[in-house]
Design goal:
The complex is a heterotrimer of chains A (358), B (318) and C (270). Chain A is mostly helical and 358 residues long. Chain A contains 14 helices and four strands. In chain A, helix 4 (80-97) packs across helix 5 (103-122). The chains are: A mainly alpha (358), B mainly alpha (318), C alpha/beta (270).
């Protein structure tokens, strides 16, 4: 089947404004969803689900969250780890206080707490910009990290100081806790990520997305066309932190099954930021690519030599990952600031005109 | 009422009743502040001349210290190792200019900022592959740095000053002074400032951007060596040291990104502020507040003075 | 050329009045005691040599700089300071000398962004982008497409504006301002750097906007031919002071204006 849009005429503005206006893209999306919801659960084993797919999806969600703030609104944040942590701890407290409410509801609701914290630390963004703002978000990161360690109430006074995820069921099936199967957790993570990606795509393709991008591209001009800067920026902080918070809650409840505060340290902020940069600032597809590359790279570095009978020491894998990621970031920023998503687009464009070069 | 007493009265009572502890805390803060200022200086150098906010300054400190110790471990005499380390920093500066700055010229400052994250990660990975990840001991005595402490009696107790701290304060002050003179008085210094104002204008009057960038990155590398030696001698040389780069950020924000005096004063405020805060108010909050106090102070300043204490007022044009 | 007298009939009362406005940056005086008015429906030109304070004047009018002294009355409401957002809300739109487009967005999105004040569907409708939010989007898209047709930029609808040539970017910027359906449109050198053909197009757009939509326009321009042809009345600034305020024909013969433009040294008064 050729990737052509010839002959696909749009007869209404609504059709022209659809998120995937080209038929082949819609077919591709349907195929991906089919694979994700049907094929992978059928063939997937624990390693694929637990070590690859679940974390990939969770990081994607965090990357989408940060991308809304940094890629779309142009506000650099180094507090992602902290905002994810707020989600995780909020979820723990909610399900401890109200154990009979569906855990999925609490995972989503915990995003609201991160959103509130995000707005609080986003307040200075009206007056400060660029790396000054990055420093302000560092204040959030370190303050929140400190709270996670020093306020025992947050982790239910557990002796280890870590979150211990309790058993919660959904219609009798364990969803969180040690007895939950990776398939159940995978399907829940996948559903949440799919729905939230759809929502994010609605937001960025509509009025709010334009507002954000206007603020990013030229904030003074944005104000002159009647955009309220503070409101737009705070909304970006709120939505972004909501996404990060849900990602953080899922990370602990549906992936790790328990976590210490250092999971939400500054390193996590950088990791997610790198996913956004390499995937492409200001593209949602890019967040998927970026999360895949950064998260799966160390797995590949570890598994492929091992499969070839040349086991590499774990610390070497980590060091190599650092070097490769560092180089990739510089290369992408220099050559293709729009990241992997742009390469994907260029590929599609080539396919569209194939077999002609132009 | 009790909590108010503990916040507003009790710490000052303690300061009054045990002045020796107060002086000791102030001194510790001063030393930390001077070292923060030294790192901040590395940032300011590069920022002034290239508009790049170099997040990698912290890892450059670690990298420099590791190179020095690593070479010495392989039997290179201390001062030869020092010379070789300077050479390594020069190579690094040239490499950064060729491979990172040149392809990124004319990009927005936030993109350059993020590129230095890439540099940071690259150096962390490469440094660990070359030198291994375990902490090392700085070769302080081989470089004729003093050790031990001087104790002063008085003030109802005693105050203990580490000799290495005294040396650190002196060396840092000298470096800051030399760099300030270099910037203000020499021809290259003025060219550096011209580049900072506008890349294109500097090019049009015949200043070579490439050379300038190499010079400032090299200068920042030398500052990193000094910082690495001093900081390493006080604790140990490990990758955990790079966290001090994050500490330098609030210092810069306080001082304003382009001001050398600002970096110094900012460093002192943060250093002394966080030691006093930790010692007198920290126990109230369960300790560990020096991890975030600096950022919160910086945040507070930013909200009221977005350009920092010493920065020039930002006039937005359109 | 139109006879000024015939247009005089159409001109209404003052839409905007600037009274005794002064503005200084540190020690530099950008504007000194400037007063003039802009009447409903007219095209008002602001001219003057470089550095005369023309752009500063526009910046004061749309709230970007608060004036040090003096006040501005817009639609009968007096004010001394105002945020640009409030100016936009009041119906003042603006284009810039050096372009202030949203460079990473498409032409369509840039102009749609100009509708920001007119779109009201709330956050929750935006989340699902169906029903009312989509209807509103389509309704405004229709209006924006009219502007796109009017400015003849349909072909570049989905091109990122950062990649467009300068002349087209100027047009997109005008489109964005028009999308706000302003009562007062401030144009800062709309024809700077354009060739003759582009200038003719732009002049036509400006006249059409003024006549079709009845938009009041204040315009800064260096090309005297354009100013003489387009404008109803002209304010001349020099070194931040108003030196003339009259019809184009009168200004052309004013000896203060001629002296300012020919660059006779200041301080030698006639």
């Amino acid at each position: 089947m050729l990737y052509r849009e010839v002959g696909q005429y749009k007869t209404s503005y609504a059709a022209d404004m659809a998120i995937f206006p080209i038929l082949q893209d819609r077919i591709g999306l349907a195929a991906i969803l089919l694979i994700a919801f049907v094929v992978i659960p059928l063939v997937g084993h624990d390693f694929l689900l637990n070590t690859v797919m679940i974390p990939f999806l969770i990081f994607t969600l965090a990357a989408i969250g940060l991308n809304l703030l940094t890629g779309y609104t142009g506000l650099l944040s180094l507090g992602t780890g902290g905002f994810m942590g707020v989600g995780a701890y909020a979820c723990l407290k909610l399900t401890t206080i109200f154990p009979h409410v569906n855990i999925v509801i609490w995972v989503l609701a915990s995003g609201l707490f991160s959103a509130a914290v995000g707005v609080l630390f986003g307040l200075p963004s009206l007056r400060i910009k660029g790396f000054y703002l990055a420093v302000a978000t560092l204040a959030a990161q370190f303050f929140l990290e400190w709270c996670f360690i020093r306020i025992p109430w947050l982790y239910n006074y557990s002796v280890s100081g870590a979150i211990e995820v309790p058993l919660r069921t959904l219609m009798g099936i364990p969803v969180t806790g040690p007895t939950a199967t990776s398939l159940t957790r995978y399907l829940i993570v996948l559903s949440i990520v799919v729905v939230m990606t759809w929502v994010a795509s609605n937001l960025v393709h509509g009025r709010i997305g334009r507002t954000w991008m206007a603020v990013r591209d030229m904030d003074l001009a944005a104000e002159l066309v009647g955009i309220r800067l503070l409101r737009a920026k705070l909304l970006a902080f709120a939505v972004s932190s909501f996404y990060c918070g849900v990602a953080g809650a899922m990370m602990v409840f549906l992936w790790y099954g328990g976590a210490e505060a250092e999971v939400f340290a500054i390193d996590q902020s950088f990791l997610v930021l790198f996913m956004v940069i390499i995937g492409g600032l200001g593209t949602l597809t890019g967040s998927f690519f970026g999360a895949a590359l950064i998260y799966i790279l160390p797995i590949v570095l570890r598994e492929i030599p091992a499969a070839l009978g040349l086991p590499v020491h774990p610390s070497t894998v980590e060091q190599l990952t650092f070097v490769i990621v560092g180089v990739l970031i510089i290369v992408f920023l220099a050559l293709e600031p729009n990241g992997l998503a742009r390469l994907w687009q260029i590929g599609k464009q080539k396919l569209r005109v194939w077999p002609f070069p132009y | 009422m009790d909590i108010l007493y503990k916040i507003f009265i009790d710490p000052f009572v303690q300061m009054g009743t045990a002045p020796d502890l107060l002086v000791q805390t102030l001194w510790d803060g001063l030393v930390a502040g001077v070292l923060y200022a030294l790192i901040a200086l590395g940032f300011v150098l590069i920022f002034k001349a290239s508009g790049v906010f170099n997040f990698a300054q912290g890892i450059m400190v670690v990298f420099a210290a590791l190179t020095l110790v690593g070479l010495h471990e392989h039997g290179v005499p201390a001062f030869v190792a020092l010379g070789l380390t300077v050479l390594v920093m020069l190579v690094l500066a040239v490499g950064v200019e060729r491979l990172m700055l040149r392809p990124l010229v004319n990009q927005s400052s936030i993109i350059l900022f993020m590129a230095t994250f890439g540099l940071t990660y690259f150096l962390i990975g490469a440094g660990q592959i070359v030198f291994g990840g375990s902490p090392k001991v700085m070769i302080a005595s081989d470089l004729f740095l003093p050790s031990g402490a001087i104790e002063f009696k008085g003030l109802g107790g005693f105050v203990s000053l580490q000799k290495i701290d005294i040396a650190a304060v002196i060396i840092a002050s000298v470096m800051v002074g030399v760099l300030a003179v270099f910037f203000q008085r020499t021809r290259i210094g003025r060219a550096l400032r011209a580049v900072a104002d506008s890349h294109q204008a500097a090019l049009s009057v015949g200043i070579s951007l490439e050379q300038i960038w190499v010079i400032v990155w090299f200068a920042a590398g030398v500052v990193a060596i000094a910082t690495g030696i001093l900081w390493g001698a006080r604790s140990e040389v490990s990758f955990a040291l790079q966290i001090i780069a994050l500490k330098a950020l609030p210092v810069l924000v306080l001082g304003g990104l382009t001001s050398i005096p600002g970096a110094i004063v900012g460093g002192l405020i943060i250093g002394i502020g966080e030691k006093l805060g930790e010692f007198y108010w920290g126990p109230l909050l369960g300790g560990g507040i020096e991890n975030w106090l600096a950022y919160v102070i910086a945040l507070g300043v930013l909200v009221f003075r977005p350009q920092g204490l010493f920065g020039e007022k930002i006039i937005e044009r359109i | 050329m139109r006879a000024p007298s015939s247009r005089e009939v159409r001109l209404g009362e003052a839409l905007l009045a600037v009274e005794n406005v002064s503005l200084a940056f540190g020690g530099v005086r950008a504007l000194t005691d400037v007063s003039f008015d802009i009447r409903k429906g007219e095209i008002r030109a602001i001219i003057g040599p470089n550095g005369a304070g023309k752009t500063s004047m526009l910046n004061v009018i749309n709230g970007f700089y608060p004036p040090n002294t003096g006040r501005i009355t817009f639609k009968g409401e007096a004010r001394t300071t105002m945020r640009p957002y409030a100016a936009a809300l009041g119906g003042i739109a603006r284009t810039f000398q050096n372009l202030a487009l949203f460079r990473g967005m498409t032409t369509l999105d840039n102009i749609m962004a100009g509708r920001a004040l007119k779109m009201h569907r709330g956050f929750f409708w935006q989340l699902i982008r169906h029903g009312p939010a989509l209807r509103e989007e389509v309704e405004h898209r229709r209006r924006v497409e009219e502007i796109i047709d009017f400015l003849e930029i349909a072909a570049i609808r989905k091109v990122q504006v950062g990649r467009l040539p300068y002349g087209l970017q100027k047009r997109v910027e005008l489109g964005r301002a028009l999308a706000m359906e302003p009562d007062l449109l401030l144009l800062d050198e709309p024809m700077a750097g354009m060739n003759l053909e582009e200038k003719e197009d732009m002049s036509r757009f400006i006249l059409d906007v003024n006549q079709q939509y009845g938009t009041t326009i204040a315009l800064i321009e260096h090309d005297m031919g354009v100013v003489m042809d387009l404008s109803d009345r002209v304010v001349v600034l020099d070194y931040g002071r108003k030196i003339a305020d009259a019809t184009p024909d009168e200004v052309k013969c004013d000896k203060n204006v001629i002296r300012a433009y020919l660059g006779e040294p200041h301080g030698i008064s006639a």
